[in-house]
Amino acid sequence: MEKINEIFYGLINQGIIKNDDIDIKKLKSGTTNGILYTLYNNGVPKYVIKIDKPKLIAATEAFLLTYKDVNLLPNVLYTDEKKEFIVYSYISGETHFNRGSKIEWMTILIKEQLNKYKKVNNENWGRVNGIHRNSWADFNLSSLEFAQEDIGDLLPSEDHKKVELLVNKLKTYEHQEEKYYLHGDAGVHNFVYKGNKLNGVIDPMPLIGPKIYDFTYAFCSSPDDLNLETLLSSFSLLTQDVPFNIERLLEEVIFQLYTRIGVCIRVHPHDLSGYLKAWKEWRVYLPSM
């Protein structure tokens, strides 16, 4: 508690927060690596203090300030000069559960966040704080390799080979890709729901990539409603600068679903049976060998 107390009294001394019946509670960090604390004022949660590596705090701050007009995202109150911590507004609700229907929260996400994403030109493809890629195809190839390793024998070798063919096909769209400044981890584990409605989005892992990535990532981030009706209804709301036919959309979703199964094995095993059931339905769209 020594570090958080030092931060807390520093914020008070600088006049950033008032010492008015403030209570501090440590939060479960979930899928983020940072240490999180909630600041309560008169019993009401007001702010979150996140302590993390300076490069990660800097990336979080840059993303939130770039999209400060996106109401789903928390507002930055203060960032330490050394980028050791950031203070932002608390978003009430719970992540992952009591979501309501996927089409409803996807609609809010698309209209209020994804359609407001900004293009970037001079940045490298890939994670802002990760390995920079020369192309989006390189990023996909890396994702494929990680997923293959995680999934292993859980799927038949034929499916793995067909997904490789799929990734090679996605390469052919490379000349059409536009770079966007993405959240990069836009899934239900980072979506805050209140009253069965999407109320906020937290914990960005900024990524330079095509807008379709955050769309398919969100769509595949829970195993419910992974059907064509929900996909097509939500996709019709997404503003796109590149031509997209149904065939390519299905390819993007299948690859995202495949990588999601890999992530699920490591981080969200409780969802695995739902994803494997969905995979049986979606694998029919894999390219033939």
In total, the number of strands is 11
Number of helices: 9
What is the ordering of alpha helices and beta strands?
HEEEHEEEHEHHEEEEHHHH
Q: Overall mean pLDDT score?
A: 94
Strand count, sense and barrel status of the largest sheet are: 5 strands, antiparallel
**Sheet with most strands: strand arrangement:** 1-2-3-5-4
Low-confidence stretches: none
Strand content: 15-25%
Shape: globular
CATH architecture of the largest domain: Alpha-Beta Complex
Helix percentage: 40-55%
* Structural domain count: 2
Query: Separation of termini?
Result: 58 Å
Structural class: alpha+beta
| CATH hierarchy, class of the largest domain | Alpha Beta
Radius of gyration: 20 Å
CATH superfamily name of the largest domain? Aminoglycoside phosphotransferase (APH), C-terminal lobe
* CATH fold naming of the largest domain: Aminoglycoside 3'-phosphotransferase, Chain: A, domain 2
Brief overview:
This is Aminoglycoside phosphotransferase domain-containing protein. The protein has helices at residues 2-13, 54-66, 102-112, 136-151, 157-171, 211-219, 228-235, 246-267, 272-282, and strands at 22-27, 35-41, 44-51, 76-79, 85-89, 94-95, 126-127, 180-182, 191-193, 198-201, 207-209.
If you had to describe this structure to a student in words, what would you say it looks like?
With 289 residues, the chain is an alpha+beta fold. It folds into two domains: 2-90, 2-Layer Sandwich (Phosphorylase Kinase, domain 1); 95-285, Aminoglycoside 3'-phosphotransferase, Chain: A, domain 2 (Alpha-Beta Complex). The chain is 40% helix and 16% strand. The chain contains nine helices and eleven strands. A five-stranded antiparallel sheet has the order 1-2-3-5-4, covered by helices on one side. A hairpin with a 5-residue loop joins strand 4 and strand 5. The longest helix is centred in the C-terminal third of the chain and has 22 residues, at 246-267. It is globular and about 65 Å long. 35% of the residues are buried.
